[in-house]
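Lecture notes, continued. The same structure-token format from the folding unit now serves as the input rather than the output. Read the line below as a description of shape only.
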């Protein structure tokens, strides 16, 4: 059964929160709960694990924070809360993975992405390892691109395919540029599904320009009911992507670091006659290999050297280590890299037959009371 992790859903209780924008949205002007979301998925043959709650433009952001954190639902796997105004001193609640400043609403000034306070806010998010969710006017995607170039380490997630309504040349041009940036992702949602030709053209374009690891399934529940329906949107994407585990769950888990990090340490010998060449390789590694490492859920990776020994420490935030390592092993650029590095190494004595780098066992952790044997 297909596992689904929804990268973008909303819920609200109108007895608690005031959402002024709902006054013009009669079709969804009522409360929606996590149970309602689960019921929507229950009509499809999928294993819904939960997803990423995204702020709902409540008139009091603090009130929304209190509401969401008090729910304590196991289906809320990560939280994107509202930053009314990105800046160097913005409020960042504990327990969130990122923020969204709505850029598509009437009160957001044109050119907001290029204001210095916005850029300062992106820098703060970089320092905190947080994500910026960009819901912007389609004609301001160029501004978003310029902001991303100025703060290249910022992780930016384009909401709803950039709110596109027509496949114009301007839209394609800027999305191609955004897709080439290493830290820009795109949620596949927000489009009218009844126009099958438009949908096909849009999905063909996105999958042709963005790496598969940077496209995320998103329902936009329950706002999806304003321009399509939850059921039709999910059916449309399953017809196009099939049961692609990366698209429907794994990409979201990795980006939002939903799984607890796993630490792997290993050791191998360095051939003395190849030591300088090995160090030279790693002083300027293949960019394509670094990219693939990140795509496979590895968020930190370091190699240390002492005489003829190499020690590595790896932090993995995916949910299926064997799956991701197999995907890495199939990558042609990674194989090309290994052809350079493997001759520089040799197994340590006592390594298992199937081990190249030999696993090391954790014996002490400052932050753990005890280590499982």
């Amino acid at each position: 059964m297909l596992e689904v992790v929804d990268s973008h859903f909303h819920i609200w209780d109108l007895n608690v929160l005031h959402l002024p924008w709902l006054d013009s949205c009669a079709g969804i002007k009522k409360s929606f709960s996590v149970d309602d979301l689960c019921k929507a998925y229950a009509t499809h043959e999928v294993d819904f694990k939960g997803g990423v709650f995204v702020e709902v433009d409540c008139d009091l952001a603090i009130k929304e924070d209190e509401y969401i954190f008090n729910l304590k639902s196991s289906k809320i796997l990560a939280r994107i809360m509202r930053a009314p105004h990105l800046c160097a001193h913005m409020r960042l609640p504990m327990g969130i993975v990122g923020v969204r400043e709505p850029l598509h609403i009437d009160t957001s000034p044109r050119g907001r992405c290029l204001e210095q306070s916005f850029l300062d806010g992106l820098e703060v998010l970089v320092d905190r390892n947080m994500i910026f969710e960009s819901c912007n006017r389609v004609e301001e995607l160029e501004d978003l691109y310029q902001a991303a170039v100025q703060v290249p380490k910022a992780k930016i997630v384009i909401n709803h395919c950039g709110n596109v309504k027509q496949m114009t040349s301007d839209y394609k041009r800027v999305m191609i540029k955004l897709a080439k940036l290493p830290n820009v992702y795109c949620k596949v949602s927000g489009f009218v599904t009844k126009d099958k030709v438009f949908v096909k053209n849009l999905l063909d374009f996105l999958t042709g320009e963005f790496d598969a690891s940077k496209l995320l399934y998103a329902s936009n529940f329950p706002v999806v009911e304003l321009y399509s329906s939850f059921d039709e949107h999910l059916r449309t994407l399953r017809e196009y992507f099939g049961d692609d585990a990366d698209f429907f769950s794994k990409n979201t888990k990795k980006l939002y670091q939903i799984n607890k990090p796993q630490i792997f340490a290993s050791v191998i010998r360095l051939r003395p006659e190849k030591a300088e060449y090995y160090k030279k390789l790693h002083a300027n590694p293949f960019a394509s290999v670094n990219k693939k490492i990140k795509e496979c859920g590895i968020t930190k990776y370091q190699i240390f050297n002492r005489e003829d020994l190499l020690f590595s420490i790896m932090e993995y935030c995916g949910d299926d280590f064997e799956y991701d390592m197999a995907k890495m092993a199939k990558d042609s650029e990674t194989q090309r890299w290994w052809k350079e590095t493997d001759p520089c190494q040799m197994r340590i004595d006592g390594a298992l037959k199937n081990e190249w780098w030999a696993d090391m066992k954790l014996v002490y952790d400052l932050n753990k009371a005890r280590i499982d044997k």
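Point for the exam: The radius of gyration is 23 Å.
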